[in-house]
Write a structure and sequence with these properties.
heterodimer, A: about 675 residues, alpha/beta, Rossmann fold, six-stranded mixed β-sheet, four-stranded antiparallel β-sheet, 26 helices, 10 strands, B: about 650 residues, 2 domains, 23 helices, about 55% helix, transmembrane (chain A)
Chain lengths: ~675, ~650
């Protein structure tokens, strides 16, 4: 059945709910979607009825507070009605600020604001669930993982979408989409990033589109698919979309910025928006006659789309022109509402949405749908696989992850070279442990900052599409980085421990290594938490850096004595991970370590003594204050040796607590809307 | 039409004869190779890439009052053509001649009578439209001009470009809200119009603008060309109504000319070749597609490249066939070229003299740059506020951690910790801010220096002197709260000296940041370089490791570490004349009785404060010198990523 049949059907003015829709039997059969394409024989329609979208926001700078700023209420879309059927390619046109993208966002249920009116797919109200099942939305920016090939990218998305399907089925589906969208010649090329060039911009855009086509959606929305492409590539892309709509019977709707005349010939429906209202919305073949009837013919060698967009925009260069153009646009809007084309649209909408299907029926019908949500373990595995492959192919990121921490160890080694056992070496050891805690946490943060933000943005996009949740995402990230932390901490600890020469004992080395690794891990976790709170990566980095520096300062007991600090810092010192890490470091090294007593170290005794909290009385006449490390521990870190295992457990507790905090933060943060 | 008749342009003719241009494919830059782990020795295995012909036998002629549009799909050589004519090409081999009024063009001539508008707008975001133009005008216009004249010239440019309604609006940029993209593009054009050039080159002036704005911009350009200028532009996807504004069109395909002539004749020409333009179609779109080689499939590539070849040969044979008066003219000129060029060379010297003489000198450049930099950073109060909050927050946090230090034995060590962290924490953060800020400006600097607006020397001084007040302000915010919260010695002289030392130490870190920023091509590399230097200085500062235990091979680093000298000076200032109490249950011999003993215990005694201060000052001069050398000799060309 085609759209033409509907045009001929007369709709009675009163609502006819008792009348069965002519094609209800056909429509119920189309729900049994299998991997075989059935949509070629079905007819779907998207109806937008009387859509009005209002946003409210505060104007002016944030520091003026909520009371000083005027609150602006703006109607982004006003009473927009459209009707599109499968097989049609629709172009949404208009100048910047005309509401094109907002219309797509409202259809996709991704708009925040007040929405009046309804969007229906066939006769079902478009909810987020329905959209996730039946539609795809290609946003303006391509967010792709740089080091995966085109095929891997698509296979990954497909395997998340059809977890229960067999591998051959997924391969077949991916191959078909690659063929449909014209990516066969680059199927095994890397997508590419900024430094290493991969596929071209037009091909990247196609990969983004292909990812949305995998589930064979009835409706495909695209936001500015041709932006940034040269005219030839843009033209090919639109031609490809038109072909896709015809061949696979899809409803495709795109916004477009600088439409070329060739594009005009490819689209079936055109909607021109001006300040959120339709100036024209209907078949493209009727557009030129429609405007000609209104007294605006299109010159012979001219692109009608350009011409009529200009006609529908308000020229703000000076007041006279602005007034004149505002008036003109007003007349055009009014004329369209009273046109036969608009009336036809309304009757089509009426026809298709007369009997609304409830969500429950929709879900029953969709039960046989292939798109079962994949299991937790499966998603987790797929995400870890993707992150690992991406990192493995990015050699510089990989090297930074593995060796940056070790580089700092080399710096320290450069200065100390080999620890001695004299009295001054106590200070060296303290400095070394202070650095061990700070540096490993800080490098963890830096590592996270360099790879996490693009993955986070991708999560926002894919979580919107319903592919996975924050829980799997966070868990996969934290598990995936673990092996790298093992290695980089091992490099660092080995250099510090064996080259610089700490207490030579394998078990003690193990303890040192574990603490370094936990601090390294905690640093990255903190970074991830703050990158969830702040959108800007640099703000997140500075805040995390400051938190690490100050808490290290307060609690490590190396730079300032806890007893002299403000009461509030003392009361909360238990909540500071550096307190535990430094106690373990100190006990681990100083317990039973013997110090030598050479000439001239007498003066240094005095330097040591100020570390006391005078719990012990030192017998007079002793040449060296610290003969065994325990002497020092007794003064500065009493009970550190006894508490070793407790401290260790507390640190592990910190790792767990931070993990839970991350989950809470990402739960509250939700999924951000990115363009 | 204009209020001031400056450089009333005589009529010009730009003639290009048989221009060829070849470039060598360049590999990755050293830092790109480094970050993708391409080792130097793997490089020689790569075969030397053959030279690529970018332009092939291009000839045309434009006269004042005409607008020439160069069309073509990406990779057709549009931008290269404009770059070669405007002497902006980055290497490559050029053959063929370019004449202005029959004289072979030299870079000096181009500088004298032409201006080039680049594809992306590099404007300082916090200045208004009027300020942006005024500052450049003061750098560009002859220095004999009175302030009144300069301002009226700026006003007339603003009027000519239809920017009156946004004269006092901020320009804005990626992060800052300002005027619209089309208006920003017009400001970029306005900068080039200040000298009223008779030839204006524009590379893709409409890219990134919406179709409505693009149209208005092109109308402006058409108006400019009607005003006896040559306007030559490359364009990628012109709308049909833009097409109507062009006088001349050159259609390029892979460096070959497919069509060159009156815009109005283009459709007729292609129709005569059997390619009529369908109705309701933009002829530009249609013919650009027609002359593009389609690489999608092998058959289509074959077919389209055959078509393009036929079109190219048809056009060049037609070009040959039509009697060319220009060719004849050159024939005549060829005979007299020696004389002509000689005559020109003779006048060349005068020309140079007049240009350098009338342009503002070093001192004027410096004062304009200083005023502009101050204005731009003061207007950026968001960034200033963030930095101020950062300094204050750090200061208060440290002050609270070390709140009200006593004079017992334990506090003696706390003082060392305090002085260490004062000298280490803020300078570390400052490095990141400095490098970030420098990379925001770098684009503007590079292109303005390339345009010869000013040289490195005045820029350097404007930058150094312009930043001192803001630096002083942040140091006040940083040093005062921590000093009084932690209860350091309340002697005005000691406070002033400590303040001076902190000022110097932080300033030194800024210089390291600036040096790294100017030295390295990307932000990340600059940060890594600066942080490495900083870490080396930090570890050898004498707090983390005892100075006497440092490995002999690397001990020298501590002698050049400004953090070590700053730390030492602060310690000497704070500990001198400080007496510590010794608990009754302890013999005095094991106590630190006074500050001098404490300094000795940390191996920090022996160097008076002035000693440290002068070493840090010397190091500041050293890094400033390196910074200057980097601006002067290292290309500040901005890179992506």
């Amino acid at each position: 059945m085609t759209a033409g049949v509907y045009k001929l059907t007369e709709i009675p003015e009163h609502s006819g709910k008792e009348v069965e829709p002519p094609d209800s039997s056909e429509r119920s059969s189309e729900k049994s979607v299998s991997l075989e394409l059935t949509s070629m024989v079905t007819r779907d329609s998207l109806s937008v009825l009387g859509l009005t979208y209002i946003v409210k926001r505060w104007e002016g700078s944030w520091w003026k507070g909520c009371c000083m700023r005027p609150r602006m209420v703006k109607s982004v879309l006003t009473n927009v009605s459209m009707h599109v059927s499968s097989g049609q390619l629709t172009a949404l046109l208009g100048n910047s600020g005309s509401g094109k993208t907002s219309l797509l966002n409202v259809i996709a249920n991704r708009a925040s604001g007040q929405i009046v009116g309804g969007v229906y797919l066939n006769n079902t109200l478009m909810t987020e669930k329905v959209f996730q099942h039946e539609a795809g939305y290609v946003m303006q920016d391509d967010r792709l993982i740089a080091n995966l090939t085109v095929r891997e990218t698509l296979t990954f998305t497909a395997s998340l979408k059809f977890a229960k399907a067999a591998t051959e089925v997924i391969t077949e589906r991916v191959n078909r989409v690659i063929g449909d969208i014209g990516l066969r010649h680059v199927a095994d090329n890397k997508v590419g990033g900024l430094l290493d060039r991969g596929i071209s911009g037009g091909e990247r855009r196609r990969v983004s589109i292909a990812a949305q086509l995998l589930q064979d959606p009835k409706l495909l929305l695209l936001d500015e698919p041709t932006t940034g492409l040269d005219s030839c590539t843009a033209n090919d892309l639109v031609a490809n979309l038109a072909e896709l709509a015809k061949k696979r019977g899809k409803i495709i709707m795109m916004t477009i910025h600088q439409p070329r005349s060739e594009i005009f010939k490819l689209v079936d429906q055109v909607a021109i928006l001006s300040q959120g209202e339709l100036v024209y919305g209907g078949p493209s073949v009727q557009m030129v006659p429609y405007f000609t009837d209104l007294g605006y013919p299109c010159p012979k060698y001219s692109n009608p789309l350009d011409d009529y967009i200009d006609l529908a925009s308000i020229d703000r260069r000076d007041n006279a022109v602005e007034e004149e153009s505002t008036q003109r646009v007003g007349v055009l809007k009014a004329a369209f509402v009273h046109s036969t084309i608009f009336r036809q649209t309304l009757s089509n909408i009426h026809q298709d949405t007369r009997i609304l299907q409830t969500i429950e029926t929709f879900q029953q019908n969709a039960a046989g749908f292939i798109q079962d949500p994949p299991g937790f373990y499966f998603t987790f595995q797929a995400l870890v696989w993707r992150m690992t492959v991406n990192l493995k192919r990015d050699r510089s990121a990989l090297a930074v992850r593995l060796f940056q921490l070790g580089l700092f160890a080399l710096f320290m080694w450069l200065f100390i070279f080999r620890l001695s056992n004299n009295q001054e070496s106590i200070q060296d050891r303290i400095g070394l442990f202070f650095q061990s805690g700070q540096v490993s946490a800080y490098v963890g943060l830096v590592n996270g900052v360099s790879i996490f933000p693009p993955i986070r943005d991708l999560y926002d996009r894919e979580a919107r599409d319903g592919l996975y949740t924050f829980l799997v995402f966070i868990l996969a990230y934290f598990v995936q980085i673990l092996p790298f932390h093992f290695v980089s901490s091992a490099v660092f600890s080995s250099i510090v421990y064996w080259a610089i020469g700490l207490y030579p004992d394998a078990k003690r080395f193990g303890i040192y290594y574990s603490v370094v690794m936990m601090m390294h891990y905690i640093g990255e976790m903190l970074g991830v938490i703050f990158m969830g709170i702040f959108k800007s990566t640099s703000v997140a980095t500075s805040v995390t850096g400051l938190v690490l520096a100050i808490s290290g300062l307060i609690a490590s007991g190396f730079l300032v004595s806890l007893q002299n600090m403000l009461q509030i810092f003392q009361d909360f010192s238990w909540a500071n991970v550096f307190k535990y890490s430094s106690e373990i470091f100190m006990a681990n090294e100083f317990h039973q370590l013997e110090f030598s007593c050479d000439e001239g170290s007498g003066m240094f005794n005095c330097a040591i003594i100020h570390l006391h909290y005078f719990r012990t009385i030192i017998p007079p006449g002793v040449p060296c204050l610290i003969q065994v490390g325990d002497d020092y521990l007794n003064i500065a870190f009493p009970d550190a040796v006894d508490n070793l295992s407790v401290n260790f457990a507390v640190m592990a507790g910190f790792v767990g607590a931070l993990f839970i905090t991350t989950l809470v933060v990402y739960k509250i943060r939700g999924v951000r809307n990115l363009h | 039409m204009e209020e001031i008749a400056y450089n009333r342009h005589e009529l010009k003719t730009l003639t290009v004869n048989a221009l060829h241009y070849e470039v060598e494919e360049r590999g990755l830059e050293w830092w790109q190779a480094l970050s993708s782990f391409q080792m130097p020795w793997t490089k020689k295995d790569l075969p030397r890439l053959p030279k690529r012909k970018v332009l092939n036998d291009v000839s045309f002629e434009v006269k004042s009052g005409e607008m020439l549009a160069v069309l073509g799909s990406s990779g057709s050589g549009k931008t290269s053509l404009i770059d070669v004519i405007a002497c902006n090409n980055d290497g490559g081999e050029v053959t063929g001649d370019v004449y202005i009024n029959g004289l072979k063009r030299t870079p000096a001539m181009i500088k004298e009578c032409a201006a080039c508008v680049r594809q992306d707008d590099r404007l300082l975001p916090h200045l208004t439209v009027k300020e942006t133009l005024t500052f450049v005008a003061q750098l560009k216009l002859p220095k004999e001009w009175s302030r009144q004249n300069v301002l009226s010239r700026v006003d007339s440019v603003i009027a000519e470009l239809g920017l009156r309604h946004v004269t006092d609006s901020k320009v804005g940029g990626e992060e800052v809200r300002g005027i619209s993209g089309g208006e920003r593009r017009r400001v970029s054009i306005g900068i080039q119009l200040l000298l009223d050039p008779s030839i204006l080159f524009l590379d893709e002036p409409t890219s990134g603008l919406d179709s409505f704005t693009a149209h208005h911009l092109m109308e402006t350009l058409a108006k400019l060309s009607k005003n006896d200028r040559i306007v030559m532009l490359s364009i990628h996807q012109p709308r049909s109504d833009i097409f109507a504004l062009f006088d001349l069109i050159m259609l390029l395909s892979q460096g070959h000319v497919v069509y060159n002539g009156k815009a109005a004749d283009m459709v007729a020409y292609f129709t005569s070749l059997g390619h009529p333009c369908p109705e309701l179609t933009n002829p530009c779109d249609f013919y650009v597609d027609l002359t593009t080689v389609d690489m999608k499939t092998i058959e289509r590539e074959q077919e389209s490249s055959d078509r393009v070849k036929t079109l190219v040969s048809t056009f060049s044979s037609k070009d040959e066939a039509t009697p060319k008066k220009t060719t004849v003219k050159f024939k005549v000129e060829d005979d007299t070229r020696g004389q002509v060029n000689e005559a020109f060379d003779g006048s060349d010297g005068d020309l140079e003299v007049t240009t350098t003489n009338t342009r503002p000198g070093m001192w004027d450049q410096f004062s304009v740059l200083l005023r502009r930099a101050t204005k731009n950073s003061l207007e950026d109060y968001g960034f200033l506020a963030v930095q101020a909050v950062e300094a204050l927050a750090m200061s208060v946090m440290i002050g609270l951690v070390f709140f009200d230090l006593k004079l017992d034995q334990l506090s003696a060590r706390d003082r060392f910790g305090l002085l260490y962290i004062i000298g280490a924490l803020y300078p570390y953060m400052v490095i990141l801010d400095v490098i970030g800020k420098y990379y925001k400006e770098r684009f503007t600097i590079y292109f303005e220096m390339k345009d010869g607006l000013y040289s490195a020397w005045p820029y350097f001084w404007a930058k150094v002197i312009g930043e001192i007040p803001e630096h002083l302000f942040f140091i006040l915010l940083y040093a005062v709260p921590v000093y009084f919260l932690s209860g350091m010695q309340l002697d005005p002289l000691i406070f002033l000296q400590s303040f001076g030392i902190i000022f110097l130490v932080v300033y030194n870190s800024r210089c390291i940041g600036q040096f790294a920023g100017a030295l390295m091509p990307t932000y990340q590399l600059a940060v890594i370089t600066a942080q490495s230097i900083f870490t080396l200085f930090l570890l050898s500062s004498g707090f983390i490791f005892n100075l006497e235990n440092l490995f002999v091979g690397t001990q020298w680093i501590s002698y050049v570490s400004h953090l070590k000298w700053g730390y030492q000076a602060l310690c000497v200032l704070e500990f001198t004349n400080l007496n510590f109490t010794c608990p009754a249950n302890l013999p005095e011999s094991v106590c630190l009785n006074n500050g001098e003993e404490a300094l000795m215990a940390y191996s920090l005694d022996g160097n008076p404060v002035w000693h440290s201060a002068s070493i840090i000052s010397g190091e500041i001069l050293f890094f400033l010198f390196l910074y200057f050398i980097s601006i002067k000799f290292i290309s500040q060309k901005p890179h992506q990523t």
